[in-house]
Amino acid sequence: MFCAGRALFGDDGDVRNEGTAKFLRNYMEEYGAFVQRVLAANAPGHIGDLEPDPEKLSR
Quick one: how far is CA 1 from the chain centroid? Predict the structure, then answer.
């Protein structure tokens, strides 16, 4: 995914470029919000679900 690994990440794994760090923080925040919406939509008692689907709820 990242071609310029050495340019983006230091030897300790920290992101060197502030623009890249900002992008990754925002991406993870938005992804977390998406996961919360998906989990909420598949939660027991969701409108339209007669019974919760154990396959959707298992990890």
Answer: 16
**pTM for this model (two decimals):** 0.56
Q: Which residue in the block uniquely carries the two structure tokens 């919000």?
A: 33
DSSP string, 10-56: -TTS-B--HHHHHHHHHHHHHHHHHHHHHHHHTSTT-TT-SS--HHH
Structure-token pair, residue 25: 């923080």
For 12, 18, 39, 42, 57, the CA distances from 35, given in Å and listed in that order, are: 29, 26, 6, 11, 13
pLDDT tens, 8-46?
Answer: 888 888 999 899 899 999 999 999 988 888 877 776 655
Three-state DSSP state, 9: strand
